[in-house]
Specification:
441 residues; alpha+beta; NADH Oxidase; Nonspecific Lipid-transfer Protein, Chain A; 4-stranded antiparallel sheet; 40% helix; binds cobalamin; binds iron/sulfur cluster
């Protein structure tokens, strides 16, 4: 390297700038508000609330010292509209605002000598990580730590004033402020359970259990997994008539709209129904019955397609709770390509409704590219995964890990695996079918 390069000479000739005075949390907040945020806080990276996020944050910006969390308000009226095109417009506009504001915060900080990384509010994400963690920073975790609100029973952050009509973003900064902001000391969630009643696929249980895959399959029908499944449907159709028997013209048009103008969410009814937050709660407090009639019931009564994997808890739920909605059976489009990703995704795909009354222990011995011994136990509607063989199994399965992934992604059938001896069973084979029913799709 030439040390007499013009850039090196110029930079060396500059007198180093005096170290900037350390910025306060209040000054950082004001920068965010000036850039268009509706509220903001900051959390030092060393805080324990960021333990789960720290490795990902440092991978994204190794010099990170603190994380700014900021929020943008959405219009409750738009999000509550039964016309989902209106709600989607609001979600997309707010997401664009977040991106724009994050860039402006970053620019303002650069002028103060602070380096920063604005992270994506939602998409784009790291699709190579699917079906695992494809996002860089979990904004909800940072937002809670920064005092922007708390997650309600529906797992969205509820701001004490704006309610859950907010979207979140985070900016990583390489300078530790003199102080930081703290979590609020109560949860704005009223536990009214209107979100439970609104969700068309039963993703939110009254006890706080959240079926992320049910939400993903329906609400995100026109996003990544749903899109993969749609491509499969096109590829598997012999001609346009067969395709039209599987996909209505309105669904094809909706997909075109998603590809052209931004992917459409199918529900977000949990957000729509939420009455919490000082600025939002008025109508609910004045007349609960009227609120339910005007906000919740129209969403529940709406006739619309609901996307569920056959045999899932969501499939049973929608048929029982919302018989006037049209059940559309789909594939999840999620196909892990490594055993490690498959194992990570198992708890997400586990359907506790299907596991009611089951007591089952399976030993798996994987051979081939990802060898290992695992125990899967289903008891009390819970799945436990252990990285060795424990207890006495009801069934022992020995299988090549590559062949197993081909089987779960429907590339190879069970008889094929048994005939080629890629899979061997010791014990009653019906236990494998019973186990599989807890992971439909
Ligand atoms: C993954 C994700 C989802 C997943 C999982 C939802 C969830 N509860 O985590 C799905 C696809 C289901 C989803 C749905 C929605 N999301 Co979302 N989502 C995210 C994302 C990318 C990360 C979420 C996260 O922090 N997870 C970690 C922990 C903190 O969340 P958790 O609830 O404790 O744990 C669950 C997940 O981790 C999940 N999980 C773990 N690994 C994986 C892998 C995959 C592939 C999936 C699907 C889930 C999953 O399993 C856990 C238990 O259910 C963030 C954007 C971001 N970068 O932060 C937006 C975000 C959380 N989503 C948001 C919104 C608005 C929605 C929707 C309303 C979309 C819509 N417009 O219709 C729905 C609401 C569903 C609901 N009731 O939660 C907002 C929430 C705003 C707020 N006020 O809190 C965020 C923050 C985006 C943003 N920039 O504002 N989302
Ligand atoms: S976004 Fe829709 S599908 Fe997902 S939890 Fe909320 S209401 Fe249910």
């Amino acid at each position: 390297m030439k040390m007499d390069h013009p850039t090196i000479l110029k930079v060396k000739a500059q007198t180093p700038a005096a170290a900037p005075n350390r910025i306060t949390a209040q000054e950082l907040r004001q920068i965010c508000l000036d850039c268009g945020a509706d509220d903001a806080g900051v959390v030092l990276l060393e805080r324990p609330e960021l333990d789960t996020e720290r490795p990902y944050i440092l991978k994204a910006l190794p010099s990170t010292q603190a994380v700014i969390s900021f929020v943008v308000r959405m219009s409750p009226e738009a999000v509550r509209s039964t016309a989902r095109s209106v709600a989607n417009q609001e979600f997309h506009a707010a997401t664009k605002d977040l991106t724009h504001i994050a860039r402006n915060i970053s620019k303002a900080l650069r002028e103060l000598g602070i380096r920063s990384l604005p992270t994506a509010a939602g998409f784009p994400m790291e699709m190579t990580e699917l079906p695992g963690r494809s996002w860089i920073v979990a904004h909800k975790v940072v937002a809670e730590a920064a005092g922007m609100g708390k997650m309600g029973i529906h797992r969205n952050v509820i701001h004490p004033i704006f309610g859950n009509f907010i979207l979140l973003d985070s900016v990583l900064i390489d300078t530790a402020p003199t102080d930081d902001t703290q979590p609020i000391d109560y949860n704005p969630c009223l536990e009214c359970k209107l979100c439970v009643a609104a969700c068309p696929v039963g993703a939110i249980a009254p006890d706080g259990h959240f079926d992320a895959v049910a939400c993903l399959n329906h609400n995100y029908r026109e996003f990544f997994g749903g899109f993969i499944d749609w491509v499969d449907t096109v590829a598997d159709s012999k001609n346009r008539h067969e395709y039209q028997n599987k996909v209505e013209d309105t669904e094809t048009a909706s997909l075109w709209q998603s590809l052209s103008f931004g992917a459409n969410y199918k529900s977000a009814y949990c957000v729509a129904a939420c009455p919490a937050g000082e600025d939002v709660i008025g109508p609910f407090l004045r007349n609960k019955a009227k609120f339910i009639k005007e906000i919740l019931n129209p969403l529940q009564e709406k006739e619309e397609p609901i996307y569920v994997v056959p045999g899932s808890d969501a499939d049973a739920y929608v048929q029982k709770r919302f018989p006037h909605k049209t059940v559309r059976h789909i594939g999840s489009g999620i196909r892990p390509r490594t055993l490690a990703k498959f194992l990570d995704a198992m708890p997400l795909g586990f359907q506790r409704g299907r596991a009611r009354g089951l007591l089952l222990r399976l030993h798996f011995t994987f051979t081939g590219p990802e060898p290992g011994q695992w125990t899967f136990t289903i008891a009390n509607q819970k799945l436990t995964i252990e990285r060795s063989h424990t207890g006495t199994p009801d069934l022992s399965v020995t299988v090549n890990s590559r062949a197993w992934l081909d089987f779960v992604s429907k590339r190879r059938s069970l008889p094929n695996l048994l005939l080629t001896r890629a899979l061997r069973l010791r014990g009653n084979p019906k236990h494998l079918a019973t186990f599989g029913k807890c992971f439909p799709g």
